[in-house]
Structure prediction request, 216 residues.
Amino acid sequence: MKTPGAFLLLLLGLVLPAPVEMEADSLLYPYGPAQGDQQNPKADDGASPEIPISMIFTFYGKEHRSLYVNNNGVVSFGVAVSQYTPDPFPLADGRPFVAPYWGDVNNNLHGDVYYRETQDPELLRRLTSDINQYFPAIPFTATWAFVATWDRVAYYGSTSQKVNTFQAVLANSGKVTFIMLNYGTIQWTTGKASGGDANTGLGGTPAQVGPLLQQT
Prediction:
């Protein structure tokens, strides 16, 4: 399946300079082994293997037939991303990726990173309803989705119990693509190697958020 290049962003939940607490699962779509998710390896700065997808995903005018889910809070196209300290946006090298929370995750310490491609009717109905609620003027019926979830992940160098839960959902109708970023509990912004405090996970160069990272 080939999709046009138009896409829109929807963020659910807040990302603030200070950490925030929310109902961790209130906004997230179902995830985990019970949903048939694959799981990333426990590896600092690691990533999934290259993941073929069943449709051609057009992002900033370029067609992609696969993607990577990176432990450091990024869904990327073309190449995995091991970089743990985020660069300012827009990226000078034009790397195309979606960053629900680009920061120095260490799932060796705590947490898991899950992903799946899906055409599950129940999930697609919920996606359609959510997107229609926020964008009623745009005709949209989801026919395909990719869900990546970082579940209770710790930061590099952590000496605390602070964890983050967040999710990226790529949704397509055959005509329009939405990128939805969902947030549960957010307790840290920065790993120790990025200048963050080992006890608080704050300071230094904090995590960056945003899907539209290609310089034009």
Notes: The CA atoms of residues 98 and 211 lie 4 Å apart.
